[in-house]
Structures are given as C-alpha cells and as structure tokens.
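hey
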C-alpha cells in the first residue's frame, strides 16, 4: 500500500520543504491540490510542471494525482446557468488533466462542492445534466492525457449534487467512458453512506468503477484521529487487490499540519505492517 499525502496539509511550507517532510515521514507520494501551486493553475506551463515534478522526485516521491481541482481560479462552476462560465470551467478541467500527466500523476479527484451546486430556481436534474455533459467532455481529455478522472461523492453538508457512491456510479455508467470513474472518500462515506466503508470497498471495487481512495475521519481530522476504524478499511483494500495510491486527506489539522501529517503516517504504516 502506497500512502500519498495531500499537500495542502503542509501548504504553510515552501513546496520543496513539503516534499522533504513528506518523504521524511514515510509517505511515498504527494497528491497535489492545484491551488497550492498557483492562483491560476491552468496556466502552469509544461516546463514549470517538469520543474515541480523534478522537485518531488528528487526526494524519492511521486505525484500520484491531483484533487480539490476547482478552488482556483475563483468563480468557477459546472452547474451555473451561464454557458460561458461553464465553458470556462470545463477549459480549466481539461487543462488540469494535462497538468496531472505532466506531473507524473495518474488520477484526478473531482470534489469541489462549491462548483457543483443547484442554481437558484433550478432543479437537481438540471444540475446533474450539466455535470454529466462536462464529465463526458473531460473524460475525453483524460484519455488523451493517459489519466483517470474521478467524480467524488460528497456529503449533503457540502453539496446536494452526488452524495453517494451509488449516485456517482450511476452518472459514471451513463457516460460510459473508461477514463471516468468514481472514488471513495472515507470522511464523506462515513457521513453519507449507510454501510461501513470496508463493506463499500468489498461491494464497489469489483465493479471497476472505483479509481481512487482517500482516508480521513468523518470528524474531518486524519485517519486514527476519530471514531472510524481503519484496520478493516485497509484489510478490505488488501483483500480486493487495490493497486492505486491511498490519499491521506485530513481537513482539520490539530495542532498543526506537520504534526497531523506525522501522526497519520505513523498510524497508517502501523496498520499496514500489522496486515503483513
């Protein structure tokens, strides 16, 4: 099992120091939030991407993928009635698939709840239709760049548009593209699903629709910092032969990001060793 630290946990540090600390703590990769690299990540050139990748790899890490895709530039939306705004947002998404490939990543995780809301006076069906249209287009870009684009189910506290794996799977199946999949985020699953995460893994991984796993607690802190038990989750991933990286994505850093990153690494590596 390869653990990849979501780099915004260390965003207070210069990027090179993020890489150094992540490697020191025993992570194998970084899962990068594009907004931590630039306020206009869609404008990062291939040359700059190569420099970022070389920095990561100089510490023995890899970029495993991108997540939290649409924070910057500001004002993006996939479900807004404004055609021009949706086209601009889709342009950013399509460029990010290329950036992911240039950085050496394999997967993009589309969470970004604020950018997938139901517009005033409209319906969930309209929002889903717009989201589906955008994902069908970005799946083609992902295929051209050799990466996988994953729609992330999020809890109803964050967005009314795609809250469960079943809902995400239905949309992914309707698009029917090999480079579009969904994923499991433990925090969101703990808040929005009726089954334990380990059972979700056993049910959904065999379908081929799951492209990524992120580990975090429903309390928004890191794995091992709340009530959720992660030994059964890692055991299920092992049982199902999961081959991807596991993104470590806490949202609340207590007392701070570096300490949280250190705790999560020690906890998860201990569980991994116990599994053998």
């Amino acid at each position: 099992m390869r653990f990849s630290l979501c780099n915004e946990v260390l965003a207070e540090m210069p990027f090179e120091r993020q890489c150094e600390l992540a490697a020191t703590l025993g992570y194998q990769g970084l899962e990068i939030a594009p907004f931590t690299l630039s306020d206009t990540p869609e404008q990062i050139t291939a040359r700059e991407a190569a420099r970022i990748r070389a920095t990561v790899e100089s510490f023995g890490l890899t970029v495993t993928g991108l997540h939290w895709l649409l924070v910057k530039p500001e004002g993006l939306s996939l479900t807004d009635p404004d055609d021009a705004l949706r086209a601009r947002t889709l342009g950013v998404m399509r460029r990010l698939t290329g950036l992911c490939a240039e950085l050496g990543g394999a997967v993009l995780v589309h969470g970004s709840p604020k950018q997938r809301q139901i517009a005033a006076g409209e319906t969930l069906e309209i929002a889903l239709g717009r989201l589906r249209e955008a994902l069908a287009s970005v799946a083609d870009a992902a295929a051209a760049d050799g990466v996988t684009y994953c729609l992330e189910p999020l809890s109803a506290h964050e967005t009314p548009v795609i809250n469960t794996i079943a809902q995400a799977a239905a949309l992914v199946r309707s698009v029917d593209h090999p480079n579009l999949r969904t994923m499991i985020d433990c925090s969101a699953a703990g808040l929005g699903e009726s089954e334990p995460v380990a059972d979700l893994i056993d049910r959904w991984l065999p379908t081929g629709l799951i492209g990524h796993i992120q580990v975090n607690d429903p309390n928004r802190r890191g794995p091992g910092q709340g009530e959720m038990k992660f030994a059964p989750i890692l055991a299920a991933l092992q049982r199902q032969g999961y081959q991807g990286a596991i993104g470590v994505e806490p949202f609340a850093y207590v007392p701070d990001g570096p300490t949280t990153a250190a705790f999560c690494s020690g906890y998860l590596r201990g569980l991994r060793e116990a599994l053998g």
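The chain is about 45% helix and 15% strand. The chain has one domain: 2-275.
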